[in-house]
Amino acid sequence: MTVRLATRESPLARWQAEHTADLLRAAHPGLEVELVPMTTEGDRRTDVPLSEIGGKGVFVKEVSAAVLDGRADVAVHSAKDLPALTAEGLVLAAVPARGDARDALVGCRLQDLPTDGVVATGSARRRAQLARLRPDLRFQDLRGNMATRLAQADSVDAIVVAAVALERLGLADRLTDVLPVGLMVPQVGQGALALECRTDDTATCELLAALEDPADRRRVDAERAFLAELGGDCTLPAGAHALPGAAGDGDALVLRAVLSDGAGRTEQHLSSGNDPDTLGREAARALRDLLGLEP
Question: Is residue 61 in a domain?
């Protein structure tokens, strides 16, 4: 049997697909795995802010479409790129063991950034939280693959990246300041992979089930429930990160979430619970109420 993995063509995306292929071969000896690389609209239009071309979903739609139309069997995504609602006909079949979810600065430590320093980031979530911590900072847009982003680090005081991206590319030595989640709440699903297949493809779903990390799946489910309650592919700066809760309670989760009203006010919320969906949705409602935002 051969399983075809649809993936973006960027070096990081190919690492993720190759990692998934290795996991599948290890779980199912003798299984043949092929990559089906493609370029998405988000990859092609690096000169335009993501908010103007459809948000983070532009990185996943074409990869998912390859599975829906039969060109591939599995879509390999960064979980942070997924809209909260899975496309009709597809199922989020597995979330493998998660990597580092934290954000990081390249170029300068947060505490060492000069007054009126310039930070480059393409993320409204990162920008809102940094502005809350350092109202004096100025911001510049940042797009492109990781090599392109790193090349811009010398022209500003710092750029913001996902720590796991540089770790997976063997560039962890470029990380200047890895930020704790209490200071900078990560994007929903950051550091995790999300593997989609067709809902009617029972054989592939069963193969992917062996790659599932149940604990990390619950954490990602709680974060995605937070995003879903905000309205799917929320346009407001938002993030959430779940961790295991109290020792001795295997089902307990602690969720730290952040939301900005888009007009300069940003708030965090910390809550705990046992049901991922309820926990995520209640956190979203609490932050909306705190900021006075309509559902």
Answer: yes
